[in-house]
Amino acid sequence: MARIVMKFGGTSVADLNRIHNVARHVKREVDAGHEVAVVVSAMSGKTNELVGWVENMPKVAGSNAPFYDAREYDAVVASGEQVTSGLLAIALQSMGINARSWQGWQLPIRTDNAHGAARILDIDGTDITRRMGEGQVAVVAGFQGLGPDNRLATLGRGGSDTSAVAIAAAVKADRCDIYTDVDGVYTTDPRIEPKARRLKKIAFEEMLEMASLGAKVLQVRSVELAMVHKVRTFVRSSFEDPDAPGMGDLMNPPGTLICDEDEIVEQEVVTGIAYAKDEAQISLRRLADRPGVSAAIFGPLAEAHINVDMIVQNISEDGSKTDMTFTVPSGDVDKALRVLGDNKEKIGYDVIQSESGLVKVSVIGIGMRSHAGVAASAFRALADKGINIKAITTSEIKISILIDGPYAELAVRTLHSTYGLDKS
Ligand code: ASP
Ligand code: MG
């Protein structure tokens, strides 16, 4: 017997038939004698619709009241998950399974006060643990919790993944299964490289990089949480027949296991190739090369909530002037240029240059820690295809390369084959 948290995303609960199908997945695990808690998203498209309602409320002409109140945003958008948790409990009951829905405030799942992007602080798992022990399935509404102001708080888009991992940690589950519309995590985006392979296992740290770089399978925060609490997390498809052979396999269900690196015996040097579109590069030319310059640049950008990613500073030739280049999301370029313009005196640069429409392609693998020459092969392969590199950053387990947008797909495919990730 094991304790399993099963999470179903929006496409998996998109309509009543799919909710019925989800109930069959749950029934399979219950029938196998496991203790089960379920976390659900809203029906696909629902959260967007709810957000749209909040944002499109007509405004009184000339009013300068805030556009909307974050607490009421949360009250509205959290409702999608309330609906699916109740519906799934009904579907389970109709199959003779003892099930009960739970809203975030009922457990409660305590969050901080950042309405709209709240962080989970604490989950009281006693009630659902006791009920699981009595054979009841808890169906928990994902994406929501209770803030310190005693009001509903939502966890940011994609937050149900985080709810699921947090609940798995709170009830000390043996496994957290994230059911979605893809059947696992791939070596790269299969829409770009059809030879991409599904990974059997990926280490938490690698998955964190993949998720941060736009592999949209999991909310980044859920991976952070899984890593901290060592929650073994499976990404798997809800669209497979719930009763197909192997679906109930306890150790090795179909999908990708995100786990501690110690669990990965055959570690490849490179695990995957990820990419992030819509990057922009900003360069400050002929900056004074003195203490405090970086702080003068990045302090105001941080205050403006602009996420800076790659940062490259040149060593100055004469010890007095240098250049600094960094990347921001394309959508933030104008804002960043404004902030840097406002601070021109304080920073002390000569000119600003910027370019949008760039792509960051990254090679990821914990095996890199113990292998030399991984970066060199990437540079060689891209050079052979005539792809120009604009900036490079590396970490222990990642090489990120900034290139022109139109070369993104070619670069991804090239690197995918360079490291032997193509399907055999
Ligand atoms: N329903 C929420 C969203 O669409 C949360 C989730 O699905 O994870 O962002
Ligand atoms: Mg999701």
TrEMBL record:
GO CC annotations on file: cytosol
Keyword entries, A-Z: Amino-acid biosynthesis, ATP-binding, Kinase, Lysine biosynthesis, Nucleotide-binding, Transferase
Pfam families: AA_kinase, ACT_9
Enzyme class: transferase
Residue ranges constituting the ACT domain according to the UniProt record: 282-366
CDD domains reported in the protein's UniProt record: AAK_AKii-LysC-BS (cd04261), ACT_AKii-LysC-BS-like_1 (cd04913), ACT_AKii-LysC-BS-like_2 (cd04936)
InterPro entries: AceGlu_kinase-like_sf, ACT-like_dom_sf, ACT_Aspartokinase, ACT_dom, AKii-LysC-BS, Asp/Glu/Uridylate_kinase, Asp_kin_monofn, Asp_kinase
Sequence positions that bind substrate: 47, 81
Listed pathway(s): Amino-acid biosynthesis; L-methionine biosynthesis via de novo pathway; L-homoserine from L-aspartate: step 1/3; Amino-acid biosynthesis; L-lysine biosynthesis via DAP pathway; (S)-tetrahydrodipicolinate from L-aspartate: step 1/4; Amino-acid biosynthesis; L-threonine biosynthesis; L-threonine from L-aspartate: step 1/5
Single GO MF descriptor: ATP binding
EC number assigned by the record: 2.7.2.4
Endpoints of the signal sequence: none
Domain of life from the UniProt record: Bacteria
Residues reported to bind ATP: 7-10, 180-181, 186, 191, 216-217
GO biological process, one term: lysine biosynthetic process via diaminopimelate
Chemical reaction(s) catalysed: L-aspartate + ATP = 4-phospho-L-aspartate + ADP
Similarity remark: Belongs to the aspartokinase family.
NCBIfam families referenced in this protein's UniProt entry, alphabetically: asp_kin_monofn, asp_kinases, PRK06635.1-2, PRK06635.1-4
Protein name: Aspartokinase
Protein species of origin: Sinorhizobium medicae
